[in-house]
């Protein structure tokens, strides 16, 4: 089922996600709905807070990045078919150089800004089987993980841009809060008139 994506300004996007247990009600269905919602919106990642659920869960399918002809063949191969569910993720280490990439977010449509992140991340997490894993990710996969991880910590990519850029997008963010934005996927807006 395609769920509405929560728009900028909703308090759920600022909540730190609660731990998920194996007994969490309808977890498999929630995960399936999140993938369907993400694909419907042409996203590569989606965190549970973005569909109004403040838990430590996000999904990623980086395959669309594998078509980028500017990437080395090895990177394209790494991204193709990278589909993963992350439950109770915890970043153990971020390392390497800071590098900039133009990021966007399904909860903040029509806003894209350059964000600096570390090139490598060590992550502890569970997949759907609840077996704990520790893995190192780099490049674009590390970036998508860091972006989605921020969501389960109540952080948005717009928090990581300069004050000047924040002032420049203030009007766009206000419009999103009020539902004055148009996109090809369902959204739920926090301060929409007549709600």
From TrEMBL:
Database matches in CDD domains: Pep_deformylase
Annotated active site: 148
UniProt keyword terms in alphabetical order: Hydrolase, Iron, Metal-binding, Protein biosynthesis
Record-linked SUPFAM superfamilies: Peptide deformylase
The organism's place on the tree of life at top rank: Bacteria
InterPro entries named in the record: Peptide_deformylase, Peptide_deformylase_sf
Pfam family, one: Pep_deformylase
Keyword rRNA processing: no
Cofactor remark: Binds 1 Fe(2+) ion.
Binding site for Fe cation: 105, 147, 151
Record-level Gene Ontology MF annotations: peptide deformylase activity
Ranges in a coiled coil: none
Catalysed reaction equations from the record: N-terminal N-formyl-L-methionyl-[peptide] + H2O = N-terminal L-methionyl-[peptide] + formate
Cofactor names: Fe(2+)
Keyword Signal: no
EC number: 3.5.1.88
Annotated PANTHER family: PEPTIDE DEFORMYLASE
Protein family per UniProt: Belongs to the polypeptide deformylase family.
Role of this protein: Removes the formyl group from the N-terminal Met of newly synthesized proteins. Requires at least a dipeptide for an efficient rate of reaction. N-terminal L-methionine is a prerequisite for activity but the enzyme has broad specificity at other positions.
Protein name: Peptide deformylase
Origin organism lineage: Bacteria, Pseudomonadati, Bacteroidota, Flavobacteriia, Flavobacteriales
């Amino acid at each position: 089922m395609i769920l509405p994506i929560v728009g900028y300004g909703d308090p759920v996007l600022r909540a730190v996600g609660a731990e998920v247990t194996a007994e969490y009600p309808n977890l498999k269905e929630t995960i399936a709905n999140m993938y369907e919602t993400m694909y419907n919106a042409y996203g590569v990642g989606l965190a549970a807070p973005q569909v109004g659920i403040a838990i430590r869960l996000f999904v990623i399918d980086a395959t669309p990045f594998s078509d980028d002809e500017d990437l080395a063949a090895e990177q394209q191969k790494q991204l193709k078919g990278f589909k993963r569910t992350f439950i109770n993720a915890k970043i153990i280490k971020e390392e390497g150089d800071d590098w900039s990439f133009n990021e966007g977010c399904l909860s903040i449509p029509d806003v894209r800004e350059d964000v600096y992140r570390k090139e490598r991340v060590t992550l502890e997490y569970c997949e759907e089987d609840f077996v704990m894993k520790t893995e190192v990710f780099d490049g674009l996969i590390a970036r998508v993980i860091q972006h989605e991880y921020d969501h389960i910590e109540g952080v948005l990519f717009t928090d990581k841009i300069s004050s000047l850029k924040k002032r420049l997008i203030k009007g766009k963010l206000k419009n999103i809060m009020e539902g004055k934005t148009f996109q090809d996927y369902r959204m739920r807006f926090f301060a929409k008139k007549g709600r």
